[in-house]
Automatic annotation (TrEMBL):
Gene coding for it: Stag2_1
Protein name: STAG2 protein
InterPro entries for this protein: ARM-type_fold, Cohesin_Scc3/SA, HEAT_SCC3-SA, SCD
Assigned protein family: Belongs to the SCC3 family.
Listed Pfam families: HEAT_SCC3-SA, SCD
GO biological process: sister chromatid cohesion
GO molecular function: chromatin binding
Coiled coil: none
Domain of life: Eukaryota
GO CC annotations, alphabetized: chromatin; cohesin complex; nucleus
Amino acid sequence: QLQENQDEIENMMNAIFKGVFVHRYRDAIAEIRAICIEEIGIWMKMYSDAFLNDSYLKYVGWTMHDKQGEVRLKCLTALQGLYYNKELNSKLELFTSRFKDRIVSMTLDKEYDVAVQAIKLLTLVLQSSEEVLTAEDCENVYHLVYSAHRPVAVAAGEFLYKKLFSRRDAEDDGLLKRRGRQSPNANLVKTLVFFFLESELHEHAAYLVDSMWDCATDLLKDWECMNSLLLEEPLNGEEPLTDRQESALIEIMLCTIRQAAECHPPVGRGTGKRVGSR
């Protein structure tokens, strides 16, 4: 009897879905389209056994191309609610492979709010499975740490930090109490220098520091480590920094000190509206 009741309820839900949602998710009024996507996100999250499959997910994927930013935004926030729950990751694999390129392209959306949420969604995708995003996908997000729009840059900074700086090797655990050149931060500081030099935007160290300030404050304030990398002799088997790398480290260090002292973003970075193509 329980099974019969459950089947009857699911039949009712399917009738409502086909009779209402399938027609209204393409409604002429953007607000109604946004409500539809928001609700289907709730359904998939609350009742994943019935709704979290590609028959329903595809509607969210298609709607990510909607011409209204508020609707695209609802798609991304609905997906974030699903990717945040790691237990649901296996049910999202096909959707991710099918619509990943669209999500990556949305990091350059003409609406800044949409771009920010696209980066945050990719950060969740990254945490669920690192293999999903290619090196090219990641690089498309990395360069946004130099964006003039601070929320976009900060979201990209968190993505960069999760990808390149948040993992520690097992041997690092034994170094946690060590300081200076022997601390776990030493390799992370060098990674930051290498990234800065590879990005070839050498006049924008202040932008890079500001982007990562919220998520990597402890690393960026480890001036003792930075000093020791500049002043002390390399450890056995350690490659010394080149003159170019030392100059980059000094530039980054100066920017971190200025950021800590002034407590505001660099000149030219704000939260204005973007005008451009979708």
